[in-house]
Write a structure and sequence with these properties.
alpha+beta; three-stranded antiparallel sheet; 2 helices; 35% helix
């Protein structure tokens, strides 16, 4: 005899052989969370779930990670859960790039302090002027990219 076990949520775990009933020869003890009803065949991304009287096939994406447009990361934890329609399979690159740009803009501000101080004090040399011009060009380019990313 074979019985079919399931977890506390009814999700199919596997087959097992029950112990024989020591008080009644030829009969078997049905373990907790098991049924004699055979589950249906199932494919990738689906699992049988026992509802108390029969098996139902449900989607199985447990462990799948996804992101939403706001950059928040999520993971499917239960059989039967589907990916939201707006789910992204990869972290939005746009949000990563926005963070990179903002970090670099802060760095540009820091790198500008010494050459600007020299220009203000009237002690600037060609290096200071070239450095400020290069930083300002980079800042303008990044600011334009940031505006485009923010749509």
């Amino acid at each position: 005899m074979i019985v079919y076990s399931y977890n506390e949520k009814g999700v199919f775990i596997g087959e097992l052989k029950p112990d024989e009933n020591p008080l009644k020869k030829g009969s078997f003890l049905l373990p907790k969370n098991a049924t004699e009803t055979k589950p249906p065949l199932f494919g990738e991304n689906e699992k049988p779930v026992f509802n108390g009287s029969d098996w139902e096939l449900k989607p199985d994406f447990v462990g799948v990670k996804y992101w939403l447009g706001d950059g928040s990361e999520h993971e499917i934890l239960n059989v039967g859960e589907l990916l939201p329609v707006e789910a992204l399979k990869e972290k939005p690159v746009k949000l990563d790039r926005i963070a990179e740009i903002k970090t670099r803009l802060l760095e540009i501000d820091s790198e500008s302090i010494r050459p600007l101080r020299a220009i203000t004090a009237g002690t600037a040399n060609e290096f200071d002027t070239n450095k400020i011009n290069a930083l300002e060009a980079e800042r303008a380019s990044l600011a334009s990219e940031l505006v485009a990313l923010n749509g």
